[in-house]
Request: fold
Amino acid sequence: MIMSQIQTKRPATAPNPPVFELIEVEQEFSVPKPGRGLFNRDTVGLKALDGVRLSIAQGASLALVGESGSGKSTLLRVLLGLDAPSGGRALYRGRPIREARARGTGFARDVAMVYQDARGSLDPRMTVGQLIAEPLRHFNIVKKGEEAARVAQLIDRVGLPTDAASRYPSGLSGGQVRRVAIARALASEPSVLVADEAVSGLDVSTQAQLLTLLRSLQRDMGLTLVFITHDLGVASYLCEEIAIMYLGRIVETGPTDAVLDAPAHPYSAALRAAAPRFFEPIPEPLPGEIPSPLDLPKGCRFSSRCPAAQEDCRLRDPQLGQQGAGRAVACLHPLTSTGAQASENR
Amino acid sequence: MSIQTPEAPTTLPPAEPPKKAKTGRRSIFLRRPFFTIALIVAAAYVLAAIFAPFVAPYDPVMQDINAMMQAPSVAHPLGTDSYGQDILSRVIYGARYALIIGIFSVLIGAAGGLVIGLAAGLSGGWLEWALMRLIDSILALPSLILAVAFIAILGQGVDKVVVAVGLSMIGPFARTVRADVMQVRVQLFVEAATLMSIPYLKVIWRHVLPNVIFPLAVQVTIRISEAILVSSSLSFLGIGVTPPTPDWGLMIAEGRAFVSFAAWMSAMPGFALALLLIALSIVGDGIREEFDPKLRRGA
Reply:
């Protein structure tokens, strides 16, 4: 009886369950009500994530793109199981992420993280060798005798000089520190690598080296890559898929090239147009600031800044829906490819 | 112009770069002459304390009625006191008590401060509130007053002084440890360790504690001088160590009545105390500046 129940349940998720699946994930923080008095304890809910739908398949590489304040970091914390979402379901291989994390070291070993502030994520009192050896030891990956060899191998793999093992992070450059963070993430032999702005704030040549490294790592080890960035160029180089976030919701997903070539959502088009290009003046940016998530516009959340907003945009809130092959967009009046072209040429 | 240009390159560049490269690697002793001098003075005190029986010319408690209150002379370089005891010998033996009390009481204070500070910094909530109010109440009293209170409870003697001074120093240590813990526990590398699902206690042991211990060790070197001062003050007040013991504070107190015509009786131990305190604080400052994690360069 129980067996049959399990078996009837299994097929729903068993045929290649996505590594991560987010179903209508919401994350609401209660914050002090703006303008409340000194003794007033009123709070209001701030929806940092509002109905996020996302599915990341094994071996995929996804770029998560959005402005500051669009909820990228909140989404990251949900993906890593650091915070439980306040609504919806966040699944890791068909099981709630928090549950998977609580079950032991399996999740922590399988999902590795590279922080934006790589230097801050490394204990300043440990040498590079000790830092890389820590996950090796914690997850019991190699025997004690082989530890040094494995550390040397990892240091070599990420392109650090051999003598780096005995140095402290404070003596390394920004690019080298990122390499240490990547080596540390790879030490646990993960199948998923989550990188938060892993190449931002570096000079362009270092960025290029790191991107090449990440790409070759992804290909060689078959990593699933979740890459948070605000650089569309980085996204298109490194990732096959892209998800564009705006105010706590994913507004467009799809293959990176297709989305960037012909954005269907006006916000994607605006982001695309705002990327600086050689020998061209910087185009007119989007009007206004990103609205406060406490005070969302009625209807579509982008309607207050959208250049193509129409009457019903201010009344109805669009959901993420299918739009062509493998693409999805949350817009009532998605731009057709010709429309996208037109909006870009303006 | 034509004269200046050939002159400058020949003299300046060869002299400049090697010198610069050298200053970068010069040892701490050459870069900080005051630190070096202070270290030598402090080391001399430590050696004198350890080898007191060999260094001191007389027995520190040997009374000689024929040599009462003698001014400094060849036989008694620092003079004698009202019982005819040799002050130099008493000062040398006094260094023993000063250093023993200083070091051990600071260790007690640091250990207690570490425990309370860690607990307060990591717990949060009502426990943190209770611990911090306890520390605040300890800090509200100067350490001397607090040490007097503990002496009143414990009684007199060298060991009691160590405990009393140690307990009175827990407050300041606990506060600095708590501040460091609060700063370290929100660091990204602690979150990264949690993300690796390393157990909480292990994270504290491996990542929080080492980052807290080091600033604490620096604090210890700085506060030894404070502990010595408090213990000497206790002796001066006549409630620390008991009279025949050659303690500096006690000697200053004994010489007080004769200060108008035998000033050396109080001045010599006072000078010894002042010199040690100055030396210790220069050493402590030097160590802090040299090894502070925020100032430290990559090794």
Q: What stands out?
A: Residues 263-282+298-346 of chain A form one domain. Residues 137 and 143 of chain A are 8 Å apart (CA to CA). The longest strand of chain A covers residues 43-56.
